[in-house]
Specification:
The N terminus is likely disordered. Helix 1 crosses helix 4. The two termini are 32 Å apart. This protein has 263 residues and is of the alpha/beta class. Strands 3-2-1-4-5-7-6 form a 7-stranded mixed beta sheet. The protein has 9 helices and 7 strands. Helix 7 links the parallel strand 2 and strand 3. It has one domain: Rossmann fold, CATH 3.40.50. Bound molecules: S-adenosylmethionine (SAM). S-adenosylmethionine binds next to helix 4, helix 6 and strand 2.
C-alpha cells in the first residue's frame, strides 16, 4: 500500500495527501502531538525533560563530527547497491524522526542475524512486520529468510520512498521472499495482518506510542489468536514488554530481546 505524497513529511496518523499542511506547520503539529501524548501519559515534568533531550539530540545530530559518523555504516549499502543508512537523510527528516521518537538509524546486519537465530526455524507461514521501518534495511535483510510476506510501516514519506526504491533495487542470491512492501502510515493505526507474525521494532517510538502499539497488537491477538513474536532492538522500554502478562521473553542480549505470546 502506498499513499501518495505531496513531498512534505506527514504527521503521525494523518493521511499523506495534497491536503497536508505546509511543511512548517507539520513541525509544530508533530511537536504538539508529542507534547500532548507525553503529558497525558506521564505528566508535564517528564515530557519537558524528554523534549529537552530530543532538542539536544537534534543539535548533536547537526555537529560536523556527527555528520561524519553518519557515513560509518555504509558497508551494507555498498554491498547491496541500496541506500539505507542515515548518511543521506536530510536534516528536516532527521528532526521530524527525532521529534517523533528518535533519530533515524538502520539496524546493524550482525545484530539482525542474531535476532533471526532466536526465531522459529520454519518461517514460511510468518509475516515479518517492521514498525518504524525507515529506509527499509530490515525489510531487505528479512527477505533473505523464507517469510511468507514482509511489511514495513513508516510514517515519514521521505524514508518510505527511499524504502520503496531500495525494495526495487535489492538483489541478493540469498533472497527467499519477494513479497515486500513499505506502507506509509502511523504504526498506531496499523491493522496487523492475519496469520503468524514476527513484529520488529528498533528504537522507533516514545513510551506512549509504544504502549498504544502493544495494546493494538494485544487486541489483534485476542480477536484472532495466532503465534506472535516481538523482536525489540534497543531495550529502552523493555519493561512494557516485561509487564504485559500476555507475552514471555524467550531470548535476548544487552542489545535486543525476543518475546512471544503465551500459549
Ligand atoms: C531508529 S529508526 C529504525 C529503522 C528501521 N526499523 C531499522 O531498524 O533499520 C525508527 C523509525 O521509526 C519511524 N517512526 C517513528 N514513529 C513512528 C510511528 N508512530 N509510526 C511509524 N513509524 C514511526 C521513524 O521515522 C524512523 O524511521
Amino acid at each position: 500500500m502506498d499513499v501518495p505524497s505531496n513531498g512534505v513529511d506527514s504527521i503521525p496518523g494523518a493521511p499523506v495527501d495534497a491536503s497536508l499542511p505546509p511543511a512548517k506547520s507539520s513541525f509544530t503539529r508533530m511537536l504538539g502531538r508529542r507534547m500532548r501524548d507525553g503529558v497525558r501519559h506521564h505528566g508535564f515534568a517528564r515530557t519537558l525533560w524528554e523534549m529537552t533531550t530530543a532538542l539536544y539530540r537534534i543539535v548533536i545530530e547537526l555537529t560536523p563530527a556527527r555528520k561524519k559518523a553518519r557515513y560509518g555504516d555504509l558497508d551494507y549499502d555498498l554491498e547491496h547497491s541500496v541506500d539505507t543508512t542515515r548518511a543521506k537523510v536530510n536534516v528536516r527528516t532527521q528532526i521530524m524522526a527525532t521529534l517523533a521518537g528518535h533519530p533515524y538509524f538502520a539496524t546493524e546486519p550482525w545484530l539482525f542475524e542474531q535476532i533471526m537465530q532466536a526465531l522459529p526455524a520454519d518461517l514460511r507461514e510468518f509475516t515479518f512486520v517492521d514498525l518504524g521501518s525507515g529506509k527499509g534495511r530490515t525489510l531487505l535483510m528479512a527477505s533473505d529468510h523464507p517469510f511468507r510476506r514482509i511489511l514495513g510501516v513508516e510514517f515519514l514519506p521521505a524514508l518510505h520512498h527511499a524504502a520503496r526504491k531500495n525494495i526495487e533495487k535489492y538483489s541478493s542470491e540469498q533472497q527467499r521472499c519477494k513479497q515486500i512492501e513499505s506502507i506509509c502510515m502511523d504504526a498506531r493505526d496499523f491493522a496487523f495482518p492475519s496469520g503468524p507474525l514476527v513484529i520488529y521494532m528498533f528504537n522507533a517510538f516514545p513510551e506512549p506510542v509504544f504502549t498504544e502499539v502493544l495494546e493494538s497488537l494485544h487486541r489483534s491477538v485476542e480477536q484472532n489468536p495466532r503465534q506472535v513474536y516481538v523482536a525489540y532492538r534497543y531495550l529502552e522500554f523493555e519493561t512494557l514488554l516485561q509487564t504485559c502478562g500476555w507475552m514471555e521473553k524467550i531470548a535476548g542480549t544487552e542489545h535486543w530481546a525476543v518475546y512471544r505470546n503465551r500459549a
